[in-house]
Please model this.
Amino acid sequence: MKNVTLDTAGADSTIITVQQHILAEQRKHSPHASGSFSWLLSGITLATKMTEARVRRAGLLDVLGTAGNVNVQGEVQQKLDVYADRALVHCLGVRENVAIIASEESEEAITFDGRSGHGKYVVLFDPLDGSSNLDVNVSVGTIFSVLRLPEGFTSEDNPTKAVLQPGTEQLAAGYVVYGSSTIMVYTTGHGVHGFTLDPSIGAYVLSHENIRMPEQGTYYSSNDAYWDTFPAEYREYIAHLRSGATGRRYALRYIGSLVADFHRTLLRGGVFLYPPTDKNPEGKLRLLYEANPVAMIAEQAGGFASSGSGRIVDVPPTEIHQRTPLIVGGKEEMELFEEYCKPAHSCTPACV
Ligand code: AHG
Ligand code: MN
Ligand code: MN
Model:
């Protein structure tokens, strides 16, 4: 028998894939875990690699442009929205431990026929975020949130009930940003970790361990085209950031893909805001599969995420595609926002 000593000093010993990381995390934090969550996560990573392969070659595969129909949100579906959605439904559908899924692209929650009843997870996702940017080669992403199937839930129960859980119930949350590189960021409640897809080996490899959001940044991120229709306290808050009254002048960065704007905010700090507008008085972003996963990641990295009237993760969901205002950022920017959010806020010279 030949006994191999692992080369722990060699360059390759530093390669930690997302699967290895998840298993190590489970061993560390849930010693009796059955590896069921890492099996679920491998469904998500596989689906995102399938999507990434299409995104990278979009212009060559006639996948650009619209699929010709409108989704439940009333938004024109891009062909890649449909592809990304199908990839996730398929890859999660073949995992027996997934009981129910909910997608931005499907009006109703999805269950799987013939399940032998072992499903214990509910997975919510935005299969392709920022998809209107695809045709102009701007970063897009996939966002996911994992919940536990409620105790005592049976196939007789309405699956929507299992989906409508507040963000505090999330077991895990993550996103993949298809940008200049493809990066997966996830949390299971024990810190936030980032993995870069290495195309030469087809694996997500640990590249950003234990990400912490800077307490103060230099960017604010909002679609200022809607400035006139933001509620006054949001206009005053942004004016304060712009004025230099905080001791630094903030610059505006806005990509128009939540995943890309949030990823920058997570790594560089600052604040992202999608306030209520006349067009979307409840806010535009969806609570369950955009705001909640982003909020869990932000809080796990030391940041904060507000709906404008409280923590995003405390908002009680009433419908699958419910929208919410989203303000998410570092400690300093969010403490300042809370000041402006308070009804008693009186305008200071920095406000306009
Ligand atoms: P999706 O492509 O999944 O519908 O999401 C688009 C969202 C989000 O990615 C982004 O932050 C926001 O739309 C941008 O909205 P505006 O174009 O109104 O700024
Ligand atoms: Mn989206
Ligand atoms: Mn989308």
